[in-house]
Amino acid sequence: MTIELEYDEWFDKYKPITNDHDEIKVYETYGVDLEFIESIIEDNRVWTFLDGGDFSVITNGAMFVNRLCYYVTEIPWEGEAGDIEIDLYEADECDITGEHLWMDYLREMDMKTIQVCEFCEMSKDDYELYG
């Protein structure tokens, strides 16, 4: 049975380790970082950020397929690896208004105009794909 948590619930309950800038510390999947992760796997404090193209989640345990990076939490998880998932996609509706207020926004990378919600900053393309 998979337990699904919102990102904020996960952050508050398991307390991911942060860096000097109060951002969640990211551990790479190779080198010294991977050696550290392998040394604490049994502590049940390792989480994996997975990206499979049509999904992005953080899950408990050290996974290897589709992994982008690892996180370590202060509070250990209980159960089996892969039992807890934290969904990383935006909500269907704006967190502030309950509906989206679409505004044209010029994305500077490719000079393409896209529509973005003024409040939650979700793009209309993202909403149509995942919303």
Distance between the termini: 25 Å
- Rg measurement, Å: 17 Å
- List low-confidence stretches: none
Structural class: alpha+beta
Total separate domains: 2
Number of helices: 3
- So what's the overall shape? elongated
What is the mean pLDDT? 83
Instruction: Characterize the largest beta sheet: strand count, sense, and whether it forms a barrel.
Output: 5 strands, mixed
What percentage of amino acids are in beta strands? 25-35%
The residue fraction in helices comes out at 10-25%
The secondary-structure element order is: EHHEEEEEEH
Number of strands: 7
The neighbouring-strand order within the major sheet is 1-5-3-2-4
Strands, helices and their partners?
Layout: E1 3-5, H1 7-14, H2 31-40, E2 46-51, E3 56-60, E4 67-72, E5 84-87, E6 102-107, E7 112-117, H3 124-130
Parallel strand pairs: 1-5
Antiparallel strand pairs: 2-3, 2-4, 3-5, 6-7
Any overview of this molecule?
There is one protein chain. It contains three helices and seven strands; from the N terminus they run E-H-H-E-E-E-E-E-E-H. Strand 2 and strand 3 (56-60) form a beta hairpin. By secondary structure, the chain is of the alpha+beta class. It is elongated. The protein has a five-stranded mixed beta sheet with strand order 1-5-3-2-4. Strands 6-7 form a two-stranded antiparallel sheet. The protein folds into two domains: 3-87, no CATH class; 90-131, no CATH class.
